[in-house]
Amino acid sequence: MNAWQHLRRDPWALAGAIVIVLFVVGAVLAPAITAINGQDPYRYHVSALDDSGAPRGPGGGISWQHWFGVEPLSGRDLFAIVLFGARTSILVGVGASVASVLVGVAVGLVAGYFGGWVDRVVSRVIDVMLGFPSLVFMISLTAIVAASFPKPLLIVLIIGFFGWPAVARVIRGQVLSLRSRTFVTAAEAMGAPAGHVLLRLLLPNVGATIIVYATILIPASIGTEAALSFLGVGVPPPTPSWGRSIGDAVAWFGVDPAYLVFPGGALFLLTLAFNTFGDGLRDALDPRVSRGRRSAATPGTDERAVAGR
Prior knowledge:
Structural class: mainly alpha
Number of strands: 0
Largest sheet: none
Number of helices: 14
Distance between the termini: 28 Å
Radius of gyration: 24 Å
Helix content: over 70%
Shape: elongated
């Protein structure tokens, strides 16, 4: 059973993939979708607010014009904020994960293949990086970097910088087990350069691990971006961000909890979808899982073979 067939048979992975596709399509087509009811995330609807700054009407001001209601104090359409906020979350999540994977794979390959003092130095650096209170450092770095530097790019670089050590540790462990295999030793005996062994022999054999780890890193990066925006050091307003919307909604939770439902629900659904899809992809690409499930599906095979003999 190949990976695609396995994913099709996994309802959780399939549901996760469908949710991811829906969010991506919604983020890409956000201007066209929000234009249906004539809204955008940068328009302020002061008339939709009462004197205290709270939206008029039930459910946070839900109406035929504002499908998810409006944001307290600003009156911005919450449906448009959620859709355009998906762009921010997905771009930051994917960008930071790509940066982490690129650096982590390169470092892990080199450390695992060359070993010796290279491996020792890299391992100590990884240990130090993993021991950092990363969120504190992220908050500090986003606060001290010049305001002229693009904030979304800065967040991608910071999250990617603190994400590569975990990737490097996993890839290093894989390469350590692969470098003593026959195909590697044979290539080295024939005079293959280190670059050929790393890129042509070892890298393809850790490809499945890289793919799976990337799908698991994306929701973590999305959650980190939301946390930074929640704390007020993420993407600057008025750029839509789920984390900042959740942070603003917390202050109004006692007045009407509806403001928290849509940005919080979107963040929960997207991270859950990536996690379930990543778990399904890991199972599909792991031959041991596939063999185990095939043998479990035909429990009488071994017994019939013994009886035949």
